[in-house]
Amino acid sequence: MNRFGVKIAPNVRSVLAAAYSTRSKNILRQRYQHRNKDGTFKEFNESITVVPKEFEQQDEYKNEKRVGQIYQDRYKKQQQAKQYLFTLKLSKEEIAESVEQKDVCEHRTQEDGTIQLEKSPYRKKQHQCIFCKYNVPLDYKNVQLLSQFVSPHTGLLYGQEVTGLCYFKYKELENTLFKARKLGLMPFFYKETVFVNDPNLFDPFKNNLKQIPDDYDKRKLNADPKINE
């Protein structure tokens, strides 16, 4: 009899029991999949797995309850197997003998084998800027040194990838060059006398655009001849 006072037939009762057993099986499965590293269960709310007394003696419930102990035993066997495989129980004398044999074999095979290099031959040499390598001081009065880093054609300072200087020395070179130009020791557009009469590589004032034709009014339009008559 249900909560409404209606009697339930035996076949219907068996169907409800089977449905409840499958549902409880899924609930228990969700509970047992959460375990600690040592195989023990975590603390869960016991109310989610409460089973009525009339279903406690079912085979499915008993099997689900037995899974926990099976899992713990299996986990312990796996740990013992790992410990047996990855650990060697040797005495100190046996370890010393194995090390000596290993050293002897290595020395014998290295005579005709590959040579172990201390440095990699494929490693690039560390680049050092010329100012840092020879400790050259940068002075705004040394115009001859500063002019070597300025293009004689355009009068502009070469880039860092062209000069090969480090970041700090390149910034110091820019500031020193600006200071020398401000004081009048070096012109802003530096160009040697040999290159004065050379043609310019680029003339920004030259108009390369073609002249726009002004004959739009003289064009013949495709008008209707009847209208013109």
TrEMBL record:
The keyword Manganese does not apply. One of its GO terms (biological process) is mitochondrial translation. One of its GO terms (cellular component) is mitochondrial small ribosomal subunit. Keywords: Ribonucleoprotein, Ribosomal protein. The keyword Zinc-finger does not apply. Pfam families: Ribosomal_S18. One of its GO terms (molecular function) is structural constituent of ribosome. InterPro entries: Ribosomal_bS18, Ribosomal_bS18_sf. SUPFAM superfamilies: Ribosomal protein S18. Belongs to the bacterial ribosomal protein bS18 family. This is 28S ribosomal mitochondrial. It comes from Brachionus plicatilis (Marine rotifer).
